[in-house]
Design a protein that fits this description.
Blueprint (H helix, E strand, L loop, with lengths): L6 H48 L1 H4 L5
């Protein structure tokens, strides 16, 4: 009496594995996007700090 898996059980196992893999992949993609957004934010703040320091911001024309 051995453990045998039918086609249905194997397909269910594959489906569950794919769902878990997709969830982990989307989690990782979300992490990459958050990291990129944070890096862009930091870069923008550094540019603004430099422009404030040099006085460039006060001399810029107003945007319409």
């Amino acid at each position: 009496m051995g453990l045998t898996l039918g086609k249905r059980e194997i397909l269910i196992g594959i489906a569950i594995s794919l769902v878990c893999l997709g969830y982990k992949a989307s989690e990782y993609i979300g992490y990459i996007n958050e990291k990129r957004q944070w890096e862009n934010y930091v870069r923008t703040m550094q540019k603004n700090r430099e422009r404030l320091r040099t006085g460039a911001i006060e001399n810029e024309p107003k945007r319409k």
